[in-house]
Design brief:
This protein is α+β, with helices and mostly antiparallel strands. It has three domains: 217 residues, no CATH class; 165 residues, no CATH class; 48 residues, no CATH class. It is built from 13 helices and 22 strands. It has a seven-stranded antiparallel beta sheet with strand order 2-1-5-4-3-6-7, sandwiched between helices. A five-stranded antiparallel beta sheet has the order 14-15-20-17-18. Strands 8-9-10-11 form a four-stranded mixed beta sheet.
């Protein structure tokens, strides 16, 4: 933010303003979710809202998707850079990953300036995923894209509203480039309404506390976020630590893993992240831009320091990075970026792997990563085009003190799995199975979370795409914990015509009557499975998380059925564990 006097900020007033900002952003978020047209926003909640200062730095963000803390400042900077005549009643659109900071083009930002007595005091905005913005495949997320021009409509910062009047020309351009124009425009207008609500609430707050006191508090909140982060970092031991993870492939050069390497150097309250040894930028859409890299680091640091930290740009000031130009973490335009999330997961898990040596009590195993499935076509029931876009999780990695969570989003992916009732009521699809996969969590003293199986019956001809991860390279365990089970995607499983698809695939032709089964990875385990309390293994048997074979193989626990229950053979278990240790 621009310089502001912060020394004499009243502590009570500061806390009231902090809580008020948090409430405003949550109200914006609730408005967006309730006015969203698409299932992506209404059900999966793939969106974030924020308040920014006049220079674009985030003052407050309601954390639904942590990566957007890096995107908002970059998107705002593009607006400020592009327009020197910003006025009250304006609104701007931007989704260009290189001109702004969107992780990929479907993440469209709506940014509105906030004026108080004719002075620009900040911006309100949201970033939300769009169901389709054109490109060669429904959903605009081709796993085989070779440049950003294969990834749909890209908007640099453009003025969407002037004096509160929407630009119908821009709306017509967007609609002409989408397979689902009504949903996309409806979602954009919902974002606009959310931003206007935030603008109104922020003006009310500033009017209550005065312009000078409010702006001073905004600046002070950013200062405190940085100071608190640095204070926590200063308590960690100094040193140099390295770790790496791999993405299955980039979707174009199949079978070639993509390396994500980090070297962390920590001294005093300074921490630096060097990614120089990571892979070169990829031909396929596995690349991520520096704003996303910074946001991923911020997410990891917040989770290790205090998940309840008030989130703003001060978090991003507490560290420095080197991301080599032309690398997978700093690609050159027009390198493709649309299936970026698997790379971010590898980055986050490499960061945890390196930082575990600094804060071992907060160590965790790898999780399932993230994935989305996309079906598109023209429904014979409605006569309109549709895009069924679902985000699905799996098993979380075990932690140093707890089992991993099952059937959930992990790391920075915080979107919800769409309910079956919604999917079946809005799309020509039936969900045949939705269940946890036994033995899919990595064995350990603390077990990895279980992946899920979700099987569908496709009712009409459709074009199918998937962007996933960890179908080849399994989630790593921690401290000698077992690896999680890998994922899989199969069309017409258990039939002579069964076909296994790669981790990333675009535009597979599904016929009406085809089935497809997605199995998501389980999380890695923490510490050796033979040290797990047999009573916990018995509980897992009763819950169906572990099979009798898995209990014996992975945990050295010999058990048998006793009616509807299980019993442990303590003597055989003791012998099996002793033999394993020998």
């Amino acid at each position: 933010m621009a310089a502001a006097v912060t020394k004499n900020v009243d502590a009570v007033e500061l806390e009231i303003i902090r809580a008020s900002l948090d409430g405003i952003v949550q109200e914006m978020q609730n408005s967006l979710f309730r006015t969203g047209f698409s299932t992506i926003i209404r059900e999966s909640q793939d969106a974030s809202c924020a308040i920014m200062g006049p220079d674009g730095e985030v003052i407050a963000q309601h954390v639904v998707l942590p990566l957007h803390i890096g995107a908002f400042p970059a998107c705002c900077a593009a607006v400020i850079r592009s327009y020197d005549d910003i006025e009250e009643g304006d609104a701007f659109l931007i989704n260009h990953p290189y001109e702004g900071g969107s992780p990929h083009a479907p993440d469209m930002a709506v940014i509105t300036p906030v004026f108080f007595h004719d002075e620009l005091i900040g911006f309100t905005g949201s970033i939300a995923h769009k169901s389709d913005i054109g490109g060669p495949v429904p959903g605009s997320c081709s796993g085989q894209a070779k440049e950003t021009f294969n990834e749909g409509l890209h908007l640099p910062a453009v003025r969407y509203q002037r004096k509160l009047q929407r630009s119908t020309e821009i709306e017509r351009i967007i609609a002409a480039n989408s397979r689902t124009p009504e949903l996309v425009l409806g979602d954009i207008r919902g974002q606009l309404g959310s931003s206007r609500l935030g603008e109104q609430r922020l003006i009310e707050l500033v009017r209550k506390f005065s312009r000078d006191r409010s702006v001073a508090c905004f600046a002070r909140l950013i200062e405190l976020a940085e100071k608190r982060m640095r204070a926590a970092i200063s308590e960690w031991k100094d040193g140099r630590y390295e770790a790496e993870r791999f993405v299955d492939d980039d979707g174009v050069e199949t079978g070639k893993p993509v390396r994500i390497h980090v070297c962390v150097e920590k001294k005093g309250d300074r921490i630096h992240f060097d990614f120089s040894k990571s892979a070169d930028q990829t031909k396929g859409p596995a690349n991520i831009r520096p704003p996303t890299v910074r946001a991923a680091i911020g997410y990891v640091l917040v989770s290790l320091v205090d998940p309840n930290t008030f989130i703003n740009s001060g978090v991003l000031r507490a560290f420095s990075i080197d991301a080599r130009d032309g690398s997978v973490l700093n690609p050159r335009f027009p390198a493709p970026v649309n299936t970026y999330n698997p790379t971010v997961h590898a980055l986050v898990e490499a960061l945890y792997g390196a930082l575990t040596d600094i804060v071992p009590g907060l160590a965790r195993a790898d999780g399932c990563g993230s994935r989305s499935i996309i079906l598109g076509g023209r429904s014979t029931y409605t006569g309109k085009g549709y895009v069924q876009y679902e985000i699905l999780g799996g098993g979380g990695g075990a932690r140093a003190r707890k089992d991993g969570q099952s059937g959930t989003s992990v790391n920075q992916s915080n979107a919800k799995i769409a309910p079956i009732e919604i999917i079946e009521s809005e799309f020509p699809t039936r969900v045949l199975r939705f269940e946890l996969i036994p033995d899919s969590g990595g064995a350990g003293k603390y077990r990895g979370g279980l992946g899920i199986c979700r099987e569908y019956l496709n009712l009409e001809d459709a074009r199918f795409s998937i962007r996933s991860t960890k179908h080849v390279i399994a989630p790593e365990g921690a401290a000698d914990g077992g690896k999680g089970r890998t994922g899989d995607i199969i069309v017409n499983p258990d039939t002579p015509s069964a076909k296994q698809l790669p981790t990333r695939y675009a535009d597979y032709p599904l016929k009406g009557g085809d089935r497809f089964r997605l199995e998501t990875p389980g999380g890695g385990g923490f510490a050796n499975g033979y040290t797990r309390d047999p009573a916990l293994v018995l509980r897992d048997l009763r819950e169906g998380y572990v099979t009798l074979q898995g209990a014996k193989r992975d945990y050295g626990v010999v058990a048998s059925r006793a009616g509807d229950d299980f019993i442990i053979d303590e003597a055989a278990t003791k012998q099996a564990r002793a033999a394993h240790q020998g």
